[in-house]
Amino acid sequence: MNRIRLGVATILVFVFSMSFLIAGARAQSNSSDAESAAIHTVIDEFVGAFNRHDAHGWAAPFGEDGDFTNVTGLTLRGQEKVEERFKELFAGVLKNAHRVVTVRHLRLVRPDVAAVDAEWALDGSLARDGSPNPVRKGIFTWVMVKENGRWMFADFHESEFVTMK
C-alpha cells in the first residue's frame, strides 16, 4: 500500500510541477504573441503612411537615433532626417507610389528587441527622368526596440532585388 501511495504522490508532484512549467510557457508565449502583434501594428501603420504619402507618419516609428539605409546606401539618422527626405520623395518620384510589405520573419531577441525581415513590392514610382519604373521588389531588414512602451526602428535597411535582363 505504501508503494502505491508513494507512486501516486510521485505522479501528483510530477503533474503539479509540469502544470507550472506549462503555465509559464503559455505566459511567455502570450507575451511574445502580444509583442509580435504590437510590432505588426507599427509596421501596418508605417506602410499605411507610405501609401498615403505621409512623410511624418512614415518617419514616426524611427527613434531620435534610428538609422535608415536605403537601396543606394544613403544613410539617415533620426526621425527628423527621415521625414525631411520622404517629404521630398513623396512630392516627386514617389508621389504615385504604392508599397506592399509582407513580414517573413519576426524574432524577439529579447523582450525589448526584435529582428524583422519583410519583403516589399513598390509600384508607381518614377525614375529620375520622370518615366515610370517597373514594379520594384526587395527586402527590409529591421532591428526594432521597445522604448517607452512603443516599438521603434533602431536600424532599418532596405535592399532591392536585382532584375536580370
Counting DSSP E segments of at least 2 residues, the number of strands comes to 6
Which percent range describes the beta-strand content?
35-45%
* Mean of all residue-level pLDDT scores: 86
Which regions contain 5 or more consecutive residues with pLDDT less than 50? 6-29
Order of helices and strands: HHEEHEEEE
Alpha-carbon Rg, integer:
23 Å
Report how far apart the termini are.
Answer: 82 Å
Number of helices: 3
What distinguishing features does this structure have?
six-stranded mixed beta sheet; alpha+beta; 165 residues; 6 strands
Structure at a glance:
With 165 residues, the protein is of the alpha+beta class. It is built from 3 helices and 6 strands.
Description of the molecule:
- The chain has 165 residues and is α+β, with helices and mostly antiparallel strands.
- Helices cover 41% and strands 35% of the residues.
- The chain has three helices and six strands, in the order ααββαββββ.
- The protein has a six-stranded mixed β-sheet with strand order 2-1-6-5-4-3, with helices on one face.
- A hairpin with a 2-residue loop joins strand 5 and strand 6 (150-160).
- The protein starts with a helix and ends in a 5-residue tail after the last strand.
- The model is unreliable at 6-29 (pLDDT under 50).
